[in-house]
Amino acid sequence: MSSLENSTPAHSSHASSTKESKPQKAGGFSSLKSTIKHIIDSQQPKTNIKNLLKANKDKGFDCPGCAWGDQKEGLLQFCENGAKAIAWESTTKKADTQFFKKHSVSYLKKQSDYWLEYQGRLTEPLRYNSATDHYEEIDWQDAFKLIAHYLTQLSSPDQAEFYTSGRASNEAAFIYQLFGRMYGTNNFPDCSNMCHEASGVALNESIGIGKGTVTLEDFDHADAIFVFGQNPGTNHPRMMNALRKSSRAGCKIVSFNNLKEVALERFASPQDPLELLTPSATTISHLYLTPKLGGDMAAIRGICKHIFEKNEQEMSQGRDAIINNNFIEQHTLNFDKYYQQVINTSWQKIEQQSGLSKAQLLNAAEVYLQAERVICTWAMGITQHKHSVATIQEIVNLQLLKGNIGKKGAGLCPVRGHSNVQGNRTVGINEKPSSDFINALTHLVDKPLPFTSGHNVYHALKALLNKSSKVIICLGGNIAAAAPDTEQTLEALSNSELNVQISTKLNRSHLAIGKDALILPCIGRTELDIQASGPQHITVEDTFSMVHASQGNVEPLSSAQKSEIAIVAGIAQATLGNQHVKWQELTDNYDVIRDMISETLPEFSDFNNRLNAPGGFYLGNSAAKLQWLNKAKKALFSVHTLPEKLITEHFQENKKQPLFTLQTLRSHDQYNTTVYGLNDRYRGVSNERNVVFINIKDAKKLGLDEDDIVTITSIWSDDKKRSVSGFKIKIYDIPQGNLAAYYPETNPLVPLDSIGDRSYTPTSKAIAVMLEKTANERII
Ligand SMILES: Nc1nc2c(c(=O)[nH]1)N[C@H]1C(S)=C(S)[C@@H](COP(=O)(O)OP(=O)(O)OC[C@H]3O[C@@H](n4cnc5c(=O)[nH]c(N)nc54)[C@H](O)[C@@H]3O)O[C@H]1N2
Ligand SMILES: Nc1nc2c(c(=O)[nH]1)N[C@H]1C(S)=C(S)[C@@H](COP(=O)(O)OP(=O)(O)OC[C@H]3O[C@@H](n4cnc5c(=O)[nH]c(N)nc54)[C@H](O)[C@@H]3O)O[C@H]1N2
Ligand SMILES: [Mo]
After folding, report:
1. How many CB atoms lie within 10 A of CB 74?
2. 2 Cβ partners below 8 Å, 6+ apart?
3. 34: confidence class by pLDDT, cuts 50, 70, 90
4. In what ranges is there compositional bias, type Low complexity (predicted)?
């Protein structure tokens, strides 16, 4: 038994939680202290201090933390949570063959997600042996042959699923999708399906490109920034520097967040000596509104309604219009229909659905109107709802009213999650590829490739559940814990005949085994990648469409680990042979892959040379140039009615008990399904993850006190029971009727079929649930 096993709080049934209050500011000294703790914990502090100095710098590596862009100046380009991600990857702890000899899969299944990843890096390729119930070492070539054997036996290539998580490099993702398509399928479920999918769907339709229109520099020129449904203090800490700088320069920041997130209130830069060492901090939000879960579309509708009402008033008094009629006429379609829709939406409906008063929304609208240049940013609080596509299109509508797209300091900014999730999409991880893309690839490899739509995460899980899909290969990630409806997801994965995981650390996805399973250990961003032609670099694209090189500098922990590219190329060669693509040449020199990308995607022309520019190069954005590449060739005002009812109102009708809407979110000490620690410093939680945040009035109504233990049960239109138990009540500043709890512990509550309209994204921020008090004994 590892000595850690008994010391990790997750494993102690009497873990005591120290009650802490919410801090007055985010960042500052506490951030520095936490960074140092995680660096020391990695067991190689010297290496990781060197790593941090290279993070997000030229000739260094791209931080695997988030997709925020890099500043040009400054000595240090990392943040506390980036440091955690780096220290987590760059550790000397190993989950090696000895470890798997000691622990059976049945034993590992009983351990927490935290414990599994805590064991360290995967170092050798492994195959599951059902006779012994252990993972055992396998030779790399045998592993590749085994995958080829399964794939070539399938009666249709569409029986295989190729999942990608957004850490994969452009090069790995490109050859992965090339291999999948040459094998014959477009089944490319990816983490983005559970993340920003709605942004892509909405923006493609409205403005003809599925990406944000701003660059990092635009933040220096904005007069107002509207931040919708995101928690940058934890998830994009480097964005805090941009917000802090803008705020200090007089830019007005308006936050819409269901919770009062401390970093959006007051933030201290750990790089500013005064803010580091004294209680001083920068006020971030000038206006902070807390809508109900799923209430943002109504809130934005309210802002637009006020703008129209005021516009009418101004015009009737003979003054200038306050909306940008020139922009609207020249660049948009559907304005009249949208105008009518807004006029038809009552203030009563807006107030009821948003949970905000008309007066609050007028304040926000006035900030909007007074600003010449406005940026709107958003993340999961907007994208993980049933009506996310419509909500994002409402944000676009708002921006079109004043021509806040395509000018300096203004635009749309979906803040991406994984560090290269945007790049993965750009280079072809897409279950619905455009015919232009397939034609270009077909030309590249001189082989006909499929045009038909493939599976996203939702379709892939359904196909595995009904056994029409039989093989799943995952390039990174942890689909078992990241996907909704944990019981069904585990069943889906366990139905597979072969489950292949290309990973850095042990996780739940390695333990959902059907007939056969492989773990293929890869090197990460921080590590040296030496191939036949010498040291290699890979490339990534940030949320601002900047592409740059990333090169690790640490010796890999084991000589048996391979790069993701070598692994994908190895599988491809074993399955397809070398007739159309010389896979080994791609592994030998990644420049060759970049040349192939150049040939396929015009925006990557001269790829290898352009990487030499400091900071990389900008892929460009058509909408930012006021070119609209959608069907209508214009920016569209989208005309949607507000949802008639939000989910809980819908289910409440036939229920006596009060129902709540639950959002599932990240703590400060996790990276998606990777849990670094059990604290959530900015929300005053320590040593706990199984907690549920509730408004004091709601708690009183149910007779619940702080620290009482509850079972949470979700309500859905099937009769399947979805519950999690042993959750501790935390009284919190949260709108009545809403709850919050951490992901992935609450994923069992998210019904697989509860998905966004047209995005298929799990509605992780709106689940109808009820609470039941249980005996005050923790069930661990
Ligand atoms: N350290 C760290 N960094 C990360 C990640 C991580 O796990 N850890 N994950 C990465 C990934 S993949 C992603 S996608 C991003 C995620 O970044 P975020 O989107 O910031 O992540 P969440 O924790 O899901 O936070 C959602 C935020 O939206 C608010 N919210 C929820 N529902 C609503 C709503 O209906 N309306 C409004 N207005 N607000 C709402 C919540 O209160 C919370 O503040 O971060 C990336 N960066
Ligand atoms: N309830 C609920 N569910 C959610 C969300 C939510 O807010 N609520 N958020 C959703 C979102 S936004 C996302 S993006 C998904 C995340 O879904 P995923 O991307 O699938 O999950 P991660 O937790 O990021 O994956 C962690 C694993 O990736 C592997 N890994 C780490 N680095 C590397 C690397 O460099 N290469 C390779 N090959 N493997 C690596 C490690 O083995 C680690 O265990 O979860 C989604 N699920
Ligand atoms: Mo994400």
Report:
1. 11
2. 119
3. confident
4. 7-16
Pocket residue to mutate for ligand 1, from 84, 113, 231, most atoms within 8 A of Cβ: 231
For the sheet with 282-283, list strands across it.
26-27, 266-268, 282-283
Instruction: Among the bound ligands, name the one nearest to the CA of residue 82.
Output: 1
CA dist., res. 697 & res. 708, Å (int): 15
Return left, alpha or beta for 355; rule: phi > 0 is left, psi -120 to 50 is alpha, else beta: left
CA 256 to ligand 1: nearest atom: 38
For the chain, helix (H) and strand (E) counts, in that order, are 32, 31
Q: Are 164 and 475 in contact (CB under 8 A)?
A: yes
Q: Do residues 129 and 556 make contact, with C-beta atoms less than 8 angstroms apart?
A: no
436 Cα to the center of ligand 1, angstroms: 34
Q: Which two tokens stand for residue 372?
A: 């010449």
425 in contact with ligand 2, CB cutoff 6 A:
no
C-beta separation of 662 from 294 below 8 A: no
For residue 666, the ligand 2 atom closest to its alpha carbon is 7
Please indicate whether residue 234, judged by its CB atom, sits closer than 6 Å to ligand 1.
yes
Which domains, ranges and CATH numbers included, belong to the chain? 24-89 (no CATH), 94-194+420-605 (3.40.50.740), 197-414 (3.40.228.10), 647-773 (2.40.40.20)
Q: What is the pTM of this model?
A: 0.95
Q: Ligand 1, from 665, 683, 738, 750: best to mutate by most atoms within 8 Å of Cβ?
A: 665
Going by CA atoms, what residue is nearest to atom 19 of ligand 1? 380
Q: Is 451 exposed, middle or buried (0-12, 13-18, 19+ CB in 10 A)?
A: middle
Provide the residue type at 79 as one letter. C
Which residue's alpha carbon is at the smallest distance from atom 37 of ligand 2? 476
Cα–Cα nearest to 527, from 519, 536, 540: 536
CA pair distance 416, 190, nearest whole angstrom: 14
**Residue 255 — very low, low, confident or very high, per pLDDT cuts 50/70/90?**
very high
Handedness of CA 457, 455, 193, 338 (dihedral sign): negative
- Where is 635: in which H helix or E strand? strand 635-636
Q: Is 229 in the pocket of ligand 1 (CB under 6 A)?
A: yes
pLDDT in tens, 580-624: 999 999 999 999 999 999 999 999 999 999 998 888 999 999 999
**Sign of the torsion angle spanned by Cα atoms 336, 338, 339, 343:** positive
Listed in sequence order, the DSSP H helices in 453-496 are 457-465, 479-482, 486-494
> Does residue 663 have its Cβ closer than 6 Å to ligand 1?
yes
State the Cα–Cα distance between residues 467 and 514, nearest whole angstrom: 11
Ligand at minimal distance from the CA of 764 is: 2
Q: CB of 271 within 8 A of CB of 17? A: no
The 10s digit of each residue's pLDDT in 39-61 is 777 777 777 777 777 776 667 78
For residue 329, how far is its CA from the centre of ligand 1 (angstroms)? 36
Mutation test of ligand 1: which of 196, 258, 479 has the most ligand atoms closer than 8 Å to its C-beta?
A: 258
Cβ of 512 closer than 6 Å to ligand 2, yes or no, is no
Farthest CA pair distance, the chain: 85
Backbone CA torsion sign across 677, 683, 684, 685: negative
Indicate whether residue 671 lines ligand 1 (CB < 6 A): yes
* Per-residue model confidence (pLDDT) at position 4: 33
